[in-house]
Amino acid sequence: MSQTDAALAAELAEAAGRILLDLRARGEFEGKALGQEGDRLANAWLVERLRAERPDDGLLSEESKDTAERLSKSRVWIIDPLDGTREYGEARADWAVHVGLAIDGVAEIGAVALPGLDGGLVLSSGQPVAPAEHIGAPRMLVSRTRPAAEAVAVAEALGCELVPMGSAGAKAMAVVTGQAEIYLHSGGQYEWDNCAPVAVARANGLHCSRIDGSPLIYNNPDTYLPDLLICRPEYAEQVLEIVASF
């Protein structure tokens, strides 16, 4: 029996994370060069495995030259071999590996590995998790270096606690696991930045949309997908209303 898409995504994300950890541990590269080599190695391995395991599917990767071939495919794997290059190079925990599958433009299947966490963690659309309970003001995830103006406005209106964090995948998974309630991003992303995280978030019952409330659509000719909202469902309406009035 062939492996399910969700199981394959989780296996590949976890294994790519190990490749990245091993590379960093060898100490052959530092700084920007480490991130570049990590991107190259993880991407080469992921692309090879996906081509072997799902040869009829399309493929879009941040680290591979894009072609129009994927546009005629119903099923397209969308991957980011190393989300959070800076955090990876700094040996922080908030970087990720994304392996997502869009079916007819919808992020249906995905896995996000967080190899930098103690013991590592892989969150998959195939295995929803029970989030940690939180009592008190909602927590909003924002960029470590450049919090979006819309996010700051929402945080002020709702009385949110701001939680700075690195990569997009790490922030999205923090909502999934209950470390925060809202992740709003408006500073520009691409499909590989959020396809896998959105698939995992959707499987866990979270609200996922553009910040104007429209759906997130994948496998477009232009891969720029500038904004998104991932949040607990009970906050979605309020957040969208605040952003619309901003």
UniProtKB/TrEMBL annotation:
Domain of life assignment: Bacteria
A Pfam family it matches: Inositol_P
PANTHER family: 3'(2'),5'-BISPHOSPHATE NUCLEOTIDASE 1 (PTHR43028)
Protein name: 3'(2'),5'-bisphosphate nucleotidase CysQ
Organism: Croceibacterium selenioxidans
Lineage: Bacteria, Pseudomonadati, Pseudomonadota, Alphaproteobacteria, Sphingomonadales
